[in-house]
Amino acid sequence: MKTSAVIAAAAATTLAGTAQAHFQFLYTPEVMLAEPGDVPLAMVFGHPMENGHTMNMGEPEEFFVVFKGEKTDLKDSLEAVKWSGSGEEPSDAYTATYKVRRNGDYSVALGPAPYMEGAEDINSQQITKTILNKGAMPTGWNEPIGRPTEIVPMNKPYQTFVGGTFTGQLLSDGKPAAGIECEVEDINAEVDMEGKAFSKEPKGTVPPSAVVAITDENGMFTFGIPRAGTWGFACLGSGPVKEHEGKELSQDAVLWIHATEL
Ligand SMILES: [Cu+2]
How far is CA 66 from CA 94, 133, 147, 162, in A? Predict the structure, then answer.
């Protein structure tokens, strides 16, 4: 009796843990720019839909932008900050400012340091991308940027609509990755870029379990967008590197998109 109660409690803990997916944020409030200007970017490791606790990020391995096929390193612009989530302690995070001048699409890429999951004893590394546009002129939002694993958008990622859908193609080493589970969450908190904080409470409903899509034989997945905001897709374990410092590594592909009411 006692033993089974302990097992049940352990199982419940495990289930609660998996419902709360973590995502590497690469967030900016405005993804369609009309004028040249400074774009503030926030890189936080946390739980967007539950607005759960945030975690400490290590120094990113890579941070760059691709504009019209040209890659510009942005690592020098990274600033180590403390970011407040719903937890008691602020977490190690990074911010940066990128100056957008010319019209077109900007693919911003973040390669964070592998993160050790204490509870699961595996590392995760979420290779993350956010796409911005200036001047409503498309120049390459649907082109891969050569990441070890990445989600290539099949709809303009900075302009999707509530009630519409978003389709992405998951690549691993440049080839379609089939049968991979992608978790889907929105940033369900008010984001205070100046104050480097998420609101303490979630903004909207939190679904009872993880929202997922599985990639088909061509690596494609489609998601119907139920509410406005910034949505993230995290395709788990799709990357080619499977080990880090002798431990299992889950190399994930993360893409952020923006949805509005039409
Ligand atoms: Cu987590």
Answer: 20, 12, 12, 28
